[in-house]
Amino acid sequence: MITFDHVHFYYKKGQPVINNMSFTIGTGEFVAIVGSNGCGKSTIAKLMDGLLLPKKGSVTFNNLDTSRPTDLDMIHEHIGFVFQNPEDQFITTNVMDEVVFGMENIRVPREEIQSRLDHALRAVQMEDYLDSMPHQLSGGQKQRVAIAAIVAMRPQFIIFDEATSMLDPLGREHVLSIMHELHRLGMTIIHITHHMEEVLSAERILVIHEGRIEFDGNPLTFFETVDVKDYQLELPFAVRLYQMLYQSTSLMADWKEMIRIQWSIN
Ligand SMILES: Nc1ncnc2c1ncn2[C@@H]1O[C@H](COP(=O)(O)OP(=O)(O)OP(=O)(O)O)[C@@H](O)[C@H]1O
Ligand SMILES: [Mg+2]
């Protein structure tokens, strides 16, 4: 369980980025974190993993505290982090070493390394690229290798910080299905995204605005009850379509007009 207890954070004194934030994410949850550019999502992710430390309040993972240096190794072992740009996390020169490196870092027993490597690469369908150079792969393939490196470490929680934003729709769908598969296998998934369609498949949504939590609950309830424009967000296409059909049954008769309105910028 990750717990934020009255967390305050700033990069520059006098310019607060996280304001008195408290929440808990329990084991086995699938949580989406959304909000406009600069609202503090990546900062929250880095606070979770102990890459940043709160100025006030505490961030704990079970009974480990990110502000205790002796707890940080264990926290990194249990919380994996997939970044927006996979190149940021490549360290070695081939796919196999990339996945093995993370495991060696957390001292996975030597006899387990091969089977975890095979399993992780199969999970992301990259088993045929063992000897490839990470930098020569496509964006989607890089992202899959980055995910395999994390999966092989078997963390309890994985934070995806806009890990799908550089991918084409098929690549996004694939990474999203990997997230759901990992969730089904018992991992806790924290998915930071600007894609509202992806939010619909989460169990819980945290909406961040100016360093505060503005909504914490079921995504459908959020889209039904809150004016998303207040948070510079948009409704998922499915919800917009539903609302248009619901509001005006006559539109149903003229579906071409409905689609035209749906996509017109006014
Ligand atoms: N290293 C840093 N030094 C100083 N200010 C920073 C630093 N990183 C982020 N900030 C500032 O902190 C605020 C929150 O940034 P953060 O990266 O958490 O936003 P975000 O919600 O992840 O945005 P995005 O959707 O664009 O990724 C922003 O105002 C940003 O300019
Ligand atoms: Mg960010």
Written description of the protein model:
It is found in: Cell membrane. It is a peripheral membrane protein. The protein is an alpha/beta fold and 266 residues long. The protein folds into two domains: 2-232, Rossmann fold, CATH 3.40.50.300; 236-266, no CATH class. It is built from eleven helices and ten strands. It has helices at residues 41-48, 72-78, 95-105, 110-123, 139-152, 169-184, 196-199, 219-225, 237-247, 249-253, 255-263; strands at 2-12, 15-25, 30-34, 56-61, 64-65, 79-82, 157-161, 188-192, 204-209, 212-217. A six-stranded mixed beta sheet has the order 6-7-8-3-9-10, sandwiched between helices. Strands 2-1-4-5 form a four-stranded antiparallel beta sheet, with helices on one face. α3 packs across α4 (110-123), α4 packs antiparallel against α5 and α5 runs parallel beside α6 (169-184). The longest helix is centred in the middle third of the chain and has 16 residues, at 169-184. The radius of gyration is 20 Å and the shape is globular. It starts with a strand and ends with a helix. Magnesium ion binds at residues 41-42, 161-162.
Strand content: 15-25%
Instruction: Tell me about the largest β-sheet.
Output: 6 strands, mixed
- Provide the CATH top-level class of the largest domain: Alpha Beta
CATH topology of the largest domain: Rossmann fold
How many DSSP H or I helices?
Answer: 11
Query: Quick check: average pLDDT?
Result: 89
Taking all Cα atoms into account, the compactness measure Rg is 20 Å
Q: Name the CATH homologous superfamily of the largest domain.
A: P-loop containing nucleotide triphosphate hydrolases
**How many strand segments?**
10
Class by alpha and beta content: alpha/beta
